[in-house]
């Protein structure tokens, strides 16, 4: 019983410690991802929770991929 009482708070705290556990949150009409830093081919659009920014793909990359 003690083990169960110790395991429950640890399991509840795990998603907050490991961001990849829940996956990246979507933002900007579900076309972007909340990250600490955007990748080179992405632009910052807005801010998310936990000091993260909403990174969306740059429009020029979509034009190159569609050709």
Written account of the structure:
The chain is α+β, with helices and mostly antiparallel strands and 67 residues long. It has a domain at 24-67. Helices cover 36% and strands 25% of the residues. The chain is built from 2 helices and 4 strands; from the N terminus they run αββββα. A 4-stranded antiparallel beta sheet has the order 1-2-4-3. It is rod-shaped. Residues 61-67 have low confidence and may be disordered.
List the helices and strands and how they pair.
Blueprint: H1 2-17, E1 26-27, E2 32-35, E3 42-47, E4 53-57, H2 59-66
Signal peptide: 1-20
Pfam families: Defensin_beta_2 (PF13841)
Main location: secreted
Which key features would you list for this structure?
67 residues, alpha+beta, 4-stranded antiparallel sheet, 4 strands, 25% strand, disordered C terminus, antibiotic, signal, disulfide bond
Order of secondary-structure elements: HEEEEH
Structural class: alpha+beta
Radius of gyration computed on alpha carbons = 17 Å
Overall pLDDT confidence: 78
Strand order of the largest sheet: 1-2-4-3
Number of helices: 2
Reported for the largest beta sheet, the result is: 4 strands, antiparallel
Helix content class: 25-40%
**Globular, elongated, flat, extended or rod-shaped: what is the shape?**
rod-shaped
Termini separation (Å)? 61 Å
Residue stretches low in confidence (pLDDT < 50, at least 5 long) are: 61-67
In terms of DSSP E residues, the strand content is: 25-35%
Count the beta strands: 4
- Quaternary assembly: single chain
């Amino acid at each position: 019983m003690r083990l169960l009482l110790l395991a429950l708070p640890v399991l509840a705290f795990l998603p907050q410690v490991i961001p990849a556990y829940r996956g990246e949150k979507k933002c900007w009409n579900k076309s972007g991802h909340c990250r600490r830093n955007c990748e080179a081919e992405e632009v910052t659009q807005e801010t998310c929770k936990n000091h993260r920014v909403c990174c969306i793909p740059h429009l020029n990359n979509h034009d190159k991929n569609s050709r």
